[in-house]
Amino acid sequence: MKNVALHNLGCKVNSYEMDVMQQILLEKGYQIVPFDQTADIYIVNTCTVTNIADRKSRQMLHRAKQLNPEAIVVAVGCYVQTGQETIEKDGCVDLAVGNNRKRDIAEILEEYLAGREEADQKETCRGGTEQKEADQKGAGRKETHRGETEQKETDRGEARRGQAFLPQDKTLHGTTILDINHTEEYEEVTLKQTAEHTRAYIKIQDGCNQFCSYCAIPYARGRVRSRNPEDVMNEIRGLVAAGYKEVVLTGIHISSYGIDFEGKKAYSGESSLIDLIEKIHDIEGLERIRLGSLEPRIVTEEAAGRLGGLPKLCPHFHLSLQSGSDTVLKRMNRHYTTGEYYNGVEYLRRYFPRPAITTDIIVGFPGETEEEFRETEAFLERVRFYEMHIFKYSRREGTAAASMPAQVPEQIKTRRSNVLLALAKRQSTEFRRHYIGSGAEVLLEEEKEIEGTSYLIGHTRDYVKAAVAKTPELHVNDTVRIHFHRLLTEEILV
User: Fold this and answer.
1) Which of 130, 266, 439, 476 is deepest in the core (most CB within 10 A)?
2) Are residues 325 and 388 located together in one domain of the fold?
3) Mapping DSSP to helix (H, G, I), strand (E, B) and coil, where does residue 488 land?
């Protein structure tokens, strides 16, 4: 039996895929141990969304090799897709696996281990024979010995190359890199359990066709590939039967779900995504459906009306904005205007009472002027978000934005970021304070001690974190109605 340590970086899709890999390895008899312990195999599920993500991926791979220099270190995921040349030159990675091969992780490891063992046995056997011949025949055999050494290295390489999973011609610098390519169909796996006990993330699609000027993800994940609706339904039914009450539909660009199905078009008002949500809504025993990040264009009035008719759908919508300036949005190659975005928010507020609207903002995008930044600030004030995730633009080599003129100095990015962080904190606090004196349903998820008192922590349907004092009658995975009295911390209502 081999001990395997797993570490995940990046998005919820990566988290889902890590859960899948862990499930597959457990089924094959591997033992999972904490990443900071000594293991036989370390698997790092990498991220490449920014240069910082690349650096973190490399750091975790190096840390794994430091924890056990004799271990097999495996890099999987997005950084493998975009950083092959760097990985080949990096001596800490033994095996690199692309996004399209994660479901084969057990077979890949078994084949790699078998090839490595065979190569080591050949080396040991040949080493003993060579030493005996050298003792008998002396230095006159130097040239022949060199030839045998070369043959030994050839045999070692051949032994490490498998027939089904390992590449035939890609063993460089001690790193075996599996053929990296993108398939045209969704790579189906079924998840039976997740790292969380109450909420399950459900991957419904992979890939992205948007090609925003700052983003490398389409190159790491490939084109849109949508999962068969019945496979999604079957996975959710299994997880509900296992006790999960809430599912979160996630993917690289879930608003594109179904555009690769024959006869479907994106943003047509007959969204395949909403068709899927309506089917999921009928699953008996499921209490909550939550959505991952949405493309603003998908939120038409018809779409909002259909969603508003689904009681299980949580009124929590993440509409990715990135900038409140139309000129910046155009440079980003975002395919909407602030006017279209605002209309989408208003449609949701028409069909949902006080929905939680969250977003992402990039400050300091190349060429962003002070006037454009002020446009963003004013737009955020107008929309009134529940939460905003503020990021300083990070130059990503290989993207169009990396070579744009007028790169914004770091000190200006920091100043602008601080302004928006303060705005985000104020708006979020205002949204939470609205609950004080009223009640809401909370799904309890974990126990935590705060200020010397034990609480059960969970989330409302609109994803506000809430706490209730622990009692013998309350348990994790219970759904309870709580009357709120105050903010326990900046983030938690009680």
Assistant:
1) 266
2) yes
3) coil
What is residue 35's predicted lDDT score, i.e. its pLDDT? 95
Domain count for the chain: 3
Indicate the helix (H) or strand (E) that contains 316.
Answer: strand 316-318
pTM: 0.86
Residue 261 lies in a domain: yes
Beta bridge partners of 442: 460, 480
Q: Quote the crossing angle between the two packed helices 105-137 and 142-160, to the nearest 10°.
A: 170
Q: Which CB contacts under 8 angstroms, 24+ apart, belong to 275-281?
A: 275/229, 276/204, 276/229, 276/232, 276/249, 277/249, 277/307, 277/310, 277/313, 278/306, 278/310, 279/229, 279/233, 280/232, 280/233, 280/236, 280/247, 280/249, 281/310, 281/312, 281/313
Say which residue the tokens 């139309």 belong to.
Answer: 326
* 439: β partners: 483
Same domain membership, residue 415 and residue 323: yes
pLDDT in tens, 327-356: 999 999 999 999 999 999 999 999 999 999
Residue with token string 């990040």 = 293
Q: Which of 369, 361, 358, 364 is nearest to 324 (CA)?
A: 361
Q: 352, 305 in Cβ contact below 8 A?
A: no
Looking at the DSSP assignment, which residues form a beta bridge with residue 359?
Answer: 388
Q: Strand 3-8 and strand 41-46: pairing?
A: parallel
Token look-up 């080396």 returns 123
Give kind and range of the element (H or E) at residue 13.
helix 12-27
Q: List the chain residues with pLDDT less than 50.
A: 138-164, 168-173, 266-270
